[in-house]
């Protein structure tokens, strides 16, 4: 629809109204999505080279290729295409660095012809060192970024491996490790010997992630009085905390609660359900 059709049939339309509508439509048409983050930095680097007469003389083709790569990197992408945007920016940056290196190399070769190898060997050596240092700095920066990304990936993989070994469940509260009633004898809060494998895995995990706080929560079935089960669940949670502190875990990281039969996870009307309810849950809180 054009401006004339918008104004058609409007009594007393004036030139000012037409101009306002025209301006609004042109403004709307001129709005474009923004370029991906990081493309501005690559563009600035390329512009600096393009404004250098020596670079334009000795790296014209490479700068042309870099310009095409930067234009591609500047194209807006959907929010779910962040990886593609990052790849395009990385490749554009590489093309800019290649153009810079080619231009500097050819400039040095031209200088060698003009100045003579013997007479200006010192100057050429200095230029070579500067170019090598610039290339080394650029390579080091890219390597550092790649190393940081690889380290984050390794850390995430290691955390997942530890979680799998721990057989913990990821929840909104954090990682939840459930210790079943096999850990204790009936009616007892003392940890039985030979049943500490899961607790030892827990100690190992907490030692590797010392910034995580831990909640230890005891639960029972509904056999017996509420007061008895409340005390028993608390005592069992305390026994788990004592095991952890005996194995080097800082007591300040540990909090203990006993809920008795207030929070069942299964029906207490049958033996299977009651067994599931007799448990100690260790909640390893998420990082803030």
UniProtKB/TrEMBL annotation:
Keywords: Cell outer membrane, Membrane. CDD domains: OmpA_C-like (cd07185). The keyword Membrane applies. It is found in: Cell outer membrane. Pfam families: DUF4398, OmpA. Its main location: membrane. GO terms for cellular component: cell outer membrane. Residues 171-288 form the OmpA-like domain. Transmembrane segments: none annotated. This is Putative outer membrane protein. It comes from Marinobacter excellens HL-55.
């Amino acid at each position: 629809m054009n401006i004339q059709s918008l104004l058609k049939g409007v009594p007393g339309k004036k030139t000012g109204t037409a101009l306002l509508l025209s301006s609004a439509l042109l403004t709307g048409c001129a709005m474009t999505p923004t370029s991906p983050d990081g493309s501005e930095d690559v563009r600035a680097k390329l512009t600096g080279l393009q404004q250098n007469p020596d670079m334009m003389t000795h790296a014209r083709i490479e700068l042309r290729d870099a310009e095409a790569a930067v234009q591609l990197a500047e194209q807006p992408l959907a929010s779910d295409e962040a990886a593609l945007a990052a790849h395009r920016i990385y490749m554009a940056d590489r093309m800019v660095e290649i153009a810079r290196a080619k231009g500097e190399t050819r400039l040095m070769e031209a200088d060698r012809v003009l100045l003579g190898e013997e007479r200006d060997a010192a100057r050429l050596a200095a230029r070579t060192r500067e170019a090598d240092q610039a290339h080394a700095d650029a390579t080091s920066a890219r390597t550092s970024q790649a190393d940081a990304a690889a380290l984050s990936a390794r850390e995430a993989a290691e955390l997942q491996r530890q979680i799998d070994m721990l057989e913990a469940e990821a929840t909104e509260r954090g990682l939840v490790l459930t210790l079943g009633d096999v850990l204790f004898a009936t009616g007892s809060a003392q940890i039985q010997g030979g049943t500490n494998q899961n607790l030892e895995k827990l100690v190992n995990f907490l030692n590797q992630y010392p910034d995580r706080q831990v909640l230890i929560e005891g639960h029972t079935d509904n056999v017996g009085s509420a007061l008895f089960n409340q005390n028993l669940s608390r005592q069992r949670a305390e026994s788990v905390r004592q095991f952890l502190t005996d194995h080097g875990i800082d007591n300040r990281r540990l909090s203990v609660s006993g809920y008795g039969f207030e929070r069942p996870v299964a029906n207490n009307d049958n033996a299977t359900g009651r067994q599931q309810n007799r448990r100690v849950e260790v909640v390893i809180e998420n990082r803030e």
